[in-house]
Each structure stands twice: as structure tokens, then as C-alpha cells.
């Protein structure tokens, strides 16, 4: 998608809607508790941006989502665990918060474009699926990199910290499965509705 085509009136309007939606969902529907885990709907607009607007659109919406996460949860301390990690290793936490959704949005757009040449339906599903995979993968990588600094901050030895992190990873894995289900159901469904409206 060239620059002129990307900044068409339709795409700018769609980018504005998805950016606004990701902010609202991140602020009000990013951690809905249910049976001990959380439901996160804020990845859906990132997937839609990558699918409908390509890598650049996915990157922009993903970056905005990550920035909102960083400001609200780390800097303002709305999520105690993120605020705590920000104190132990602010550099890695900052990169992790902003980078995970930014990279996920970019890769989703690239993967969708590549697969769409062969099968558009599969491309939409894979573009939606790749978001939670990359988002969770980068988050877990960041957690691994911060393990030593967290252990030092709490005065733990590495083996004790490893046990704590194993429990945390179990929770992250469960949340990941929920994110996969939510994204692969809602993003393709919303995309299909938008395409129907576009045709009309």
C-alpha cells in the first residue's frame, strides 16, 4: 500500500475509528475479570488495522495501544504488577509495554498481505491469530529478561524467583488462550461486517 493510497479519506477515517476504539477498549475493557482470569478485547482493533490497513495501520494502532498500557498501568500504577515491574526494570518494561502490540500490529499486516495473495479468508484468520501470539511472546520474553532484577529487588534467590515466575507464566498462558479465542472470533466477524457495508 503506497503512501497516497494509505492516506485516503476512507483509510484515515478508519484509522481514527480503530485508534479511538483501541483507547476505549484498553481503558475500559482490557482486563474484564471472569473466573479468575481476564478478558482482553483491546487486541481486536489492532488485528483489524493490520488486516484492513496493512502493516503501517497495524503499527500505528498497536503503538497507541502499547502507549496507553504503559501510561495507565506502569506510570500511573493502575495495575499493581505492571507498576511493580516498572520500578524493578523501567527500560525493559517500557520496551515490552509499547513494543509488544506495535510489533504484533506490524507483523499482522505483513502476514495478512502475504497470505491474502493465495487465500483471503485464511489471511484474515491468521492476521487475527498472530496478534495474541506475538503480544504474549514478547511479554513472556520481557518477563524472562526481568527475572534477575525482580529477584534482586525483592531480595529473593534465583531459584525462588523461578518458582514464582512459573506460576505467573501459567496465568499468562491461560490469558493467552482467551485472547486467541476472542481475537479469532471477533476480528474476522467484524471484518466481514465492514466488508459487507463497504460493498453496499
Strand and helix layout:
Layout: H1 3-6, H2 9-28, E1 32-34, E2 37-39, H3 44-75, H4 80-88, H5 90-116, H6 120-154, H7 158-199
Antiparallel strand pairs: 1-2
Helix pairs in contact: 2-3, 3-5, 3-6, 3-7, 4-5, 5-6, 6-7
Descriptive overview:
This protein is mostly helical. It has a single domain, classed as Orthogonal Bundle (Arp2/3 complex 21 kDa subunit ARPC3). Helix content is 84%, strand content 3%. The chain is built from 7 helices and 2 strands. The protein has helices at residues 3-6, 9-28, 44-75, 80-88, 90-116, 120-154, 158-199, and strands at residues 32-34, 37-39. It has a two-stranded antiparallel ribbon. It is elongated and about 60 Å long. The relative contact order is 0.12. The model has no long low-confidence stretch (mean pLDDT 88).
